Amino acid sequence: MRPCLALQPGGGGGGVGGGGGEGGGGQGGQAGQGGGGQDDGSGSTWVRHDDGIRTAVTPLSLAQLKPAFVAHGSCTAGNSSQMSDGAAALLLARRSTARQLGLEQRILGRFISATTAGCAPDEMGIGPIAAVQALLARHRLAAADVARWEMNEAFASQAVYCLRQLGLEHAWAAGRVNPHGGAIALGHALGATGARLACTLLHALEPHQLGVVTMCVGTGMGMAGLFAAE
Q1: Residue 113 vs residue 45, higher pLDDT
Q2: Predicted TM-score (pTM) above 0.70
Q3: 38 or 140, which is more confident?
Q4: What percentage of residues in the chain have a pLDDT greater than 70?
Q5: What pLDDT score does 21 carry?
Q6: Domain Thiolase N-terminal, which positions (predicted)?
Q7: N or C: which end of the chain has fewer CB within 10 A?
Q8: What is the DSSP string of 162-196?
Q9: Cα(5)–Cα(167) distance, rounded to whole angstroms?
Q10: Chain-wide mean pLDDT for the chain?
Q11: How far is it, in rounded angstroms, from Cα 100 to Cα 96?
Q12: How far apart, in whole angstroms, are the C-alpha atoms of residue 110 and residue 131?
C-alpha cells in the first residue's frame, strides 16, 4: 500500500480532532464545557458545550450502576463507550499533489499501512489484537517502536484485554495509550470514530514518531493503522 499524506485544515483553532477539545475524565470535562449551542448569524449552530463528557462521576456513582448485559456482569454504562454525535475529516494525498495545491506546509504525517483481522462475531472486541500483531509483523516493528496508541474503547474490559494481550501495560502506564481519553470519556461517534482517532494521533505525535490507531468492528473484525508524523 502506497503511503499517503494527512493534511491539517486551514484557519485557527485546535484543528480537526486534536488540541483544545480533547481530554478524558476531569481534563475532558474542563475542556468540553463552554456555552450551549449558538447561532452565529449565518444559519449555522456551533455547539460549544459537550454534554457527553461526564463531569460529576465519582467511584461511588460508578459502583452503583447496574450491569448492562448479564445480572452479575462487570460492563455498565459507566465503563462503556457512549453513543455520541461527532464528525472528523482527513485529507489523504500524494506529496506531489499537496505541493501542487500549495498544501505542503499543512502536512501532518504519512499513512503507512493498515491491516484487518477477523474473530468470532461474539468476540468482536478482541479483533484489534490480531490486526496489530499483523501490522507490526508486516513492518518488522515491536510495540516499543510505537510512540503513541489511539485505541477505540468499546468497553473498558475489551480495551484492557487488548492491552494485556498486546503487552502494552507499560505503554499505558507511561501515558502512550489514549493519554487524552478514549471513547469512554469522549464518546463513540459511529462512522466518525476512525477519523477522530487518526486526527488525535497525528496532532499529538512528535516529528518522525510512529503511531497506531486500532478499532474493533461489529460482526467480528479488527483494524489497525500505522502513521508517521512529519
Answers
A1: 113
A2: yes
A3: 140
A4: 82
A5: 32
A6: 42-95
A7: N
A8: HHHHTT-HHHHHTT-BSTT--HHHH-B-TTTHHHH
A9: 29
A10: 82
A11: 6
A12: 19
Tally of residues, the chain: 230
Q: 184 with 79: CB under 8 angstroms?
A: yes
What is the C-alpha to C-alpha distance for residues 25 and 15, in angstroms, rounded to an integer? 21
Q: Give the three-state DSSP class for 66.
A: coil
Q: With a cut of 90, say whether residue 11 has pLDDT above it.
A: no
Q: CA-to-CA distance for 108 and 144, rounded, in angstroms?
A: 22
Superfamily name and number for 4-10+89-229? Thiolase/Chalcone synthase (3.40.47.10)
Cell numbers 475524565 correspond to: 25
Picking from 204, 74, 83, the residue whose alpha carbon sits closest to that of residue 146 is 204
* β partners of residue 228: 110, 210
d(CA 34, CA 29): 10
| Sequence-ordered list of residues with C-beta below 8 angstroms from that of 66, at least 6 positions apart, any chain | 76
Q: What is the pLDDT of residue 5?
A: 56
Residues contacting 223, CB < 8 A, separation 6+: 114, 115, 116, 117, 127, 128, 131, 194, 214, 215, 217
- Residues 24-49 as b/e (b if ≥16 CB within 10 A, e otherwise) read beeebbebbeeeeeeeeeeeeeeeee
Q: Which of 4, 209, 35, 214 is nearest to 130 (CA)?
A: 214
Cα–Cα distance between 14 and 159 in angstroms, integer?
Answer: 27
